[in-house]
Prior knowledge:
This protein is mainly alpha-helical. It contains 18 helices and six strands. The radius of gyration is 43 Å and the shape is elongated. The termini are far apart. Residues about 330-340, about 345-350, about 370-405 and about 405-420 have low confidence and may be disordered.
Amino acid sequence: MDTIASFFSFITTPVSWVIVQFHSVYGKIFGPDTGWAWGLSIVSLVILIRICLIPLFVKQIKATRAMQTLQPEMKKIQERYKNDKQRQSEEMMKLYKESGTNPLSSCLPILAQSPFFFALYHVLNGIATGSTIGVINDSLLNSARKAHIFGAPLAAKFTDGSSKVEALGASLTDVRVVTAIMIVLMSASQFYTQRQLMTKNVDTTVKTPFMQQQKMLMYVFPVMFAVFGINFPVGVLVYWLTTNVWTMGQQMYVIRNNPTPGSKAQAAYLERLTKHVTHHGKTRRRSEKTIIKAIVAKGRDRNEFERKFINALTKAGLVAQTDGTVVKGEAQATAGTEDGVATTGAAKRQQPKRQTKAQRQSGSAKAAGEPAASAEKEDSAEPTTSLEKSDEPQDAKPAARQQPPKGGSNGRSRAQSGQRKGGPQRPKSPSKK
């Protein structure tokens, strides 16, 4: 144990120093040898660590969102190379590289907490064994051994025997009851944290093996905490219970204000946002503008909840802008709208009405009659035409006159009847006599 403690000395010394500083503050309020002073020192250490880990938590959220976005592509790769595991892994790594995501990013807060957890464990274990560690000297060691939380010493464990518990100035029953309650609360908070993530903040339109793994972890993690918790000192249980409660509250805040697209949490958030925007007629917070801006940018790729939100704004006479703001619907008179979003494009082209068969026939007849009418005008302008009898041979006529008149059936019918509109009658050919 001394070898392990010396290995973590680079972190045990700072952790013990932070605990001592908090203890000096709380000791003036509750007394230096009370469980409140030492217990609150551990809680304050947890809060300080979690505040420092907020940037990693934000990175974890972004990595989780990126992984959820890649779920459809991952499913396609799994189906395409289901018989070739090596090629499947290569394509997965290629997909991660192209999208800039890292599956291990979602584990960063847990990995970052691990050194602090081991350091605190060895500090409290040193208190239980009566050995100084870090900046905790003999006087602080004696004070910590006298501290009890609800009758259980900080260094006591669920598996300790009665003789060891009595040496710490407590009863075995008190230690077992307090540690059992803390283990149950620790496991329950871990289960609830994972459950609200799976039931409220997951895109329900995508079913992938990743979701099945998360559901499995929802039951595995609480069991692991319960199994390992019986070997943790009371002080470490205080640490883990505090960090689980912090994680649960932090996640509830994120789910409520920045939900995953397509999840139940997004549906509830957009419903609240609709009531707020329609009541005030505008957006007030920057986070609201960011959400609306992302919805507008999606265009026709919006999901069901986002389309309902845009349609609700349209019914209320509001239009969402590309910068995330919301304006009154007067802009619809001069600009078109696409699903409630203002657009300034050209007017839509009107489709021509379908004509009946009689209208199409009359239109074709009219078009065929136009060149014939122009030809008649030319004939009326010249007194001598090719239709009159002439002594010149047939071959001497211009080539243009030898071509048959254009005009379709109307031209042929005129030629057969031998009638001309608005001109002298054509004499009959002598050959026909």
